[in-house]
Amino acid sequence: MKFSRIPTLVFVSSFLILFPVIHGWGEDGHLTVCRIAQSRLNDAANSAVKNLLPKYAENDLGSMCSWADRVKFRYHWSSPLHYIDTPDNLCSYQYNRDCKDETGEADRCVAGAVNNYTSQLQSYPSSSEYNLTEALLFLSHFIGDIHQPLHVGFTSDRGGNTIDVHWYTRKQVLHHVWDANIIETSEERFHDSNVDEFIDAIQQNITGIWAEQVPGWETCSRNETTCPDVYASESTKAACAWAYKGVSEGSTLEDDYFLSRLPVVNLRLAQGGVRLAATLNRIFG
Ligand SMILES: [Zn+2]
């Protein structure tokens, strides 16, 4: 979703780069997906990820999971790869119909990107054709994005980016509520404003109340390495059932909305992390 806010100064590697903040899941959402994933890697995937991460990441995949948002300006071609626009109010997704960019070029959407970077990584350990470090960082980010319901939202409102709401007393767009506000409010209210505690709570659900569902999340049909069409279909259904539901231009969203949608956000972050790990384990294992 392309929109910009006040430019922010951020250190990336040793360079000081000026860029406007853009949204996928926010930092903490992507960090959550990648932390969960890295904790579930098999030995082969663990060592491949370690080899491919830049040294300054110190083997922390989470620290690099918003990289794809930061390079949208340098890699302008990558902007449409963060989302899918589906037909308004249909609440369904079909690869052949929906996976294209605004010019109509096929495969240029987040599902196409997940397939593309998965197959690039299958050439590990050596590829003369591809930058496998970038492939890992793109894949880790895009498996997160495809689980954010409004990244598979409606075309005319650009996944909720043109729907103005109030998040409690603050002006916001609906897309950003799902990228960041629900997560931030949860951290503030339930986890001492601490992202590590927020992630721990999701990890406990993965090994607790969701344990029986996890093998189903991990599995793709027909021996596929990854299955982004499944992830995208779930997202667009959740967008209709939860994100857009009851919201119109100018709505004020507060406790009713927050408390009923937070379980959906937690579930999507958990599924994103589990599936990123399962995908990397199949690629490298
Ligand atoms: Zn993104």
UniProtKB/TrEMBL annotation:
Listed CDD domains: S1-P1_nuclease (cd11010)
Molecular function GO labels: metal ion binding; nucleic acid binding; RNA endonuclease activity; single-stranded DNA endodeoxyribonuclease activity
Alphabetized InterPro entries for the sequence: PLipase_C/P1_nuclease_dom_sf, S1/P1nuclease
EC nos: 3.1.30.1
Protein's UniProt keywords contain Cytoplasm: no
Keywords: Disulfide bond, Endonuclease, Glycoprotein, Hydrolase, Metal-binding, Nuclease, Signal
Domain of life: Eukaryota
Position of the signal peptide: 1-24
A GO BP entry: DNA catabolic process
Catalytic activity as recorded in UniProt: Endonucleolytic cleavage to 5'-phosphomononucleotide and 5'-phosphooligonucleotide end-products
Ribonucleoprotein found in the keyword field: no
SUPFAM superfamilies to which the protein is assigned, alphabetical: Phospholipase C/P1 nuclease
Family: Belongs to the nuclease type I family.
Name of this protein: Aspergillus nuclease S1
Organism: Aquilegia coerulea
